Amino acid sequence: AQSVAQPEDQVNVAEGNPLTVKCTYSVSGNPYLFWYVQYPNRGLQFLLKYITGDNLVKGSYGFEAEFNKSQTSFHLKKPSALVSDSALYFCAVRDGDNAGNMLTFGGGTRLMVKP
Amino acid sequence: DGGITQSPKYLFRKEGQNVTLSCEQNLNHDAMYWYRQDPGQGLRLIYYSQIVNDFQKGDIAEGYSVSREKKESFPLTVTSAQKNPTAFYLCASGDLGGGMYNEQFFGPGTRLTVL
């Protein structure tokens, strides 16, 4: 079975400070990892993904994520937070070695950026 | 929200009634998905379809039904057998070409409330 954990329900950060939203995963095969963002009463928007290659992945809106195989983590980061980054963030994983597996989402982390 | 539309945006249902949520995509994607979102629980997969006239149960299919008569459309019916249908429902689509590492694109969602 595959699973994703987002250990923080909410992350608070001041505008201009760096932010990190944590994600750890568990899969039996090679992980395909995704980050999505959701604004209130909207659908999810894709931010970035890791499939293979460089452990540091760059995505939309200045976000990046670092894949760490030994720690089974895929934390989302941004060097300087904006108030407009305030939203709900979801990490998701799929087992890349099992074509029948679907995406499994974490419970989400609410990011609050204060001016 | 890409090329995926969901209607209606808000839906109210009396207990014992069936309701159908619409999902249409113009992205020419083979795969379509229905998720349910509850506060603090992330997204859970209800049904998915990878080809016309074929669909598979997800993790929480009980009380729901779907059809896939056209590539562009994947309506979800919430039946009276669904014991707790009040939730935010999200439709997504994805390109299966090249493997299962492509991201999914989400519609804006339908908020269903049972009165």
List the topology elements:
The complex is a heterodimer of chains A (115) and B (115).
Chain A: E1 3-5, E2 10-14, E3 19-21, E4 24-26, E5 31-38, E6 44-50, E7 56-58, E8 64-68, E9 73-78, E10 87-95, E11 104-105, E12 109-114
Parallel strand pairs in A: 2-12
Antiparallel strand pairs in A: 1-4, 3-9, 5-6, 5-10, 7-8, 8-9, 10-11, 10-12
Chain B: E1 4-7, E2 10-13, E3 19-25, E4 31-37, E5 43-51, E6 54-57, E7 64-66, E8 76-78, E9 87-94, E10 104-106, E11 110-114
Parallel strand pairs in B: 2-11
Antiparallel strand pairs in B: 1-3, 3-8, 4-5, 4-9, 5-6, 7-8, 9-10, 9-11
Can you give a write-up of this model?
- The complex is a heterodimer of chains A (115) and B (115).
- Chain A has 115 residues and is mostly beta strands.
- Helix content of chain A is 0%, strand content 52%.
- Chain A is built from no helices and twelve strands.
- In chain A, the strands form three sheets. In chain A, strands 2, 5, 6, 10, 11 and 12 form a six-stranded mixed beta sheet that branches. A four-stranded antiparallel beta sheet of chain A has the order 3-9-8-7, with no helix packed on it.
- In chain A, a hairpin with a 5-residue loop joins strand 5 (31-38) and strand 6 (44-50).
- Chain A is globular, with a radius of gyration of 14 Å.
- Chain A starts with a strand and ends with a strand.
- Chain B is mainly β.
- In chain B, strand 4 (31-37) and strand 5 (43-51) form a beta hairpin.
- The chains are: A mainly beta (115), B mainly beta (115).
- At the A-B interface, strand 5 and strand 6 of A face strand 5, strand 9 and strand 10 of B.
Radius of gyration of chain A: 14 Å
Helix and strand content put the structural class of chain B at: mainly beta
Number of helices of chain B: 0
Q: Please describe the biggest sheet of chain A, giving its number of strands, its sense, and whether it closes into a barrel.
A: 6 strands, mixed
Order of helices and strands of chain A: EEEEEEEEEEEE
What's the count of strands of chain B?
11
Structural class of chain A: mainly beta
Secondary-structure element order of chain B, as H and E? Answer: EEEEEEEEEEE
Strand content of chain B: over 45%
Helical content band of chain A: under 10%
What is the β-strand count of chain A? 12
Mean pLDDT of chain A: 94
Question: Which range best describes the helical content of chain B: under 10%, 10-25%, 25-40%, 40-55%, 55-70% or over 70%?
Answer: under 10%
Number of helices of chain A: 0
